[in-house]
Design goal:
This protein is mainly alpha-helical. It folds into two domains: 1-97, Rna Polymerase Sigma Factor, Chain: A (Orthogonal Bundle); 130-198, Arc Repressor Mutant, subunit A (Orthogonal Bundle). Helix content is 71%, strand content 0%. It has nine helices and no strands. It has helices at 2-8, 11-19, 25-45, 48-68, 77-94, 116-140, 143-153, 159-166, 170-190. α2 (11-19) packs across α3 (25-45), α3 packs across α5 and α6 packs across α9.
């Protein structure tokens, strides 16, 4: 009877219950989403054993974040889990972990068949994800900080020009830029986002 009640609660309610000490409810969250997360990982890595490793790392990160109290519930638990999984997939790619394990022998070397476009595709995938994440984080900034950051990095304006355009002092423009970067780093950490290529 209790289990039935747990199963009918939303992800958000289960997360709150888990954070309030109901350890058993995490199993419900795991059962509810494990197939979707695992299939998503497998669709990228094409290797069951590696997918299993990344899947486990994903949920270790989920548990650690929930336990630390740094998870910010925006009503999108599964999207957050999928983003962690995606970032871990990219981390494996960055570390040079090729998704198909192939071993050299006297007659065959993996370097004979590696297609450099595979590396280019991985780089493109990583860059695309970083740009998408940065755009998302910029949208979360306070308006004044967002405006300065966009003018500086996307319009290539000097701080003097930004100050004139926004009607503030150069020091204020510099301060807003500094806080924008601090906030982006903080939000990236909270959401387990990696914003670098290596």
């Amino acid at each position: 009877m209790v289990q039935q009640y747990i199963d009918t609660r939303s992800d958000q309610e289960l997360v709150e219950a888990y954070q309030n000490g109901e350890q058993k409810v995490f199993q419900t969250l795991l059962e509810r989403h494990k197939q979707k997360v695992f299939n998503y990982i497998l669709s990228f890595v094409k290797d069951t054993s590696l997918a299993d490793d990344i899947f486990q790392d994903t949920f270790i990160k989920v548990v650690n974040t929930l336990r630390s109290g740094s998870y910010r519930d925006e009503g999108k638990f599964i999207q957050w889990v999928m983003r962690i999984a995606h970032n871990l997939i990219i981390d494996y790619a960055r570390k040079g972990q090729k998704f198909r394990m192939v071993y050299d022998n006297e007659d065959y070397s993996v370097f004979d068949t590696i297609n450099t476009s595979e590396f280019n595709m991985e780089d493109k995938m990583i860059k695309s994800q970083i740009y998408q994440d940065v755009r998302y984080l910029i949208k979360q900034l306070p308006k004044e900080q967002r405006k300065v950051l966009v003018m500086r990095h996307y319009a290539n304006m000097s701080f003097k020009e930004i100050a004139e355009k926004t009607g503030v002092s150069i020091n204020t423009a510099l301060g807003r830029m500094r806080y924008a970067l601090i906030n982006i780093r903080r939000m990236a950490e909270e959401r387990s986002l990696s914003l670098t290529m290596n």
